[in-house]
Amino acid sequence: AQSVTQPDIHITVSEGASLELRCNYSYGATPYLFWYVQSPGQGLQLLLKYFSGDTLVQGIKGFEAEFKRSQSSFNLRKPSVHWSDAAEYFCAVGEANTGGFKTIFGAGTRLFVKA
Amino acid sequence: NAGVTQTPKFQVLKTGQSMTLQCAQDMNHEYMSWYRQDPGMGLRLIHYSVGAGITDQGEVPNGYNVSRSTTEDFPLRLLSAAPSQTSVYFCASSLRWSSPGEQYFGPGTRLTVT
Questions:
Q1: Residue A101's pLDDT is what?
Q2: How many CB pairs under 8 A join A and B?
Q3: Average of pLDDT values for A59-72?
Q4: What is the chain B residue with the closest CA to A108?
Q5: DSSP notation for B24-35
Q6: Are A43 and B107 in contact (CB under 8 A)?
Q7: Residue A66: what are its φ and ψ, rounded to 5°?
Q8: Which of A38, A81, B64, B91 is the most buried (most CB within 10 A)?
């Protein structure tokens, strides 16, 4: 069965510094990969997704992620973090089967931004 | 266009009580799902539906029932609440059940069972 691992429970970065959030997945075929963000007290919002093609994908709010098949990774990056980026970030992998499309989420990484 | 709406926002139940969490979407999405979110565990799929009249179990279905009589509504029923069901519940929808795509999430229901 597919799974998603986010090794870092929480990360603290300074405002203006670069950010990389790690995500590793386990899936036999080419995966459908997603990053979602959850602000406090809110639902989840899609940042970006990878289905096929260019392995570097751009998302909203200046985020990007790179799919590396050899490492089974889909790390999220941002060159310069803003205080408003403080939130929880979830990596997810999608699976299509006869019963429908299912999404499996990682445990999340909480990002703290210090001034 | 309201997107995905959930009611109530907060709820406190006593052990053994039953209740229904409401979820509605106005985007004509085929696929709807319920997740629970617990600290350190991400989101876990409870039940999902690929269309009106069709539902199926996810990872953690025990203690929950669902039905989907219309495209718009997908209520989640707790039959006899237990403290282990204390959690934040999210409803989500996406356009097509058979293909990958963005899921749109509701704002969540925070449930406490005492």
A1: 76
A2: 63
A3: 95
A4: B42
A5: EESS--SEEEEE
A6: yes
A7: -120, 125
A8: B91
**pLDDT at A27 > cutoff 90:** no
Give percent above pLDDT 70 in chain B. Answer: 96
Distance from CA of A86 to the nearest CA of B (A): 17
Residue B29's closest CA among B89, B101, B107? B101
Q: Is the pLDDT of residue B71 over 90?
A: yes
Q: Where are the beta strands (DSSP E) in B1-114?
A: 4-7, 10-13, 19-25, 31-37, 43-51, 54-57, 64-66, 76-78, 87-94, 104-105, 109-113
Closest CB to A102 among B45, B90, B99: B45
**Chain B nearest C-alpha distance from A59 (Å):** 12
CB contact under 8 A, A101 and B108: no
β-sheet bridge partners, residue B31? B94
Cβ neighbour number for residue A29 with a 10 Å cutoff: 8
Whether B38 contacts chain A with CB within 8 A: no
Residues 6+ apart with CB under 8 A from B102: A34, A46, A49, B94
CB contact under 8 A, A96 and B100: yes
Inter-chain residue contact B100 with A94, CB threshold 8 Å: yes
Confidence at residue B1, expressed as pLDDT on a 0 to 100 scale: 67
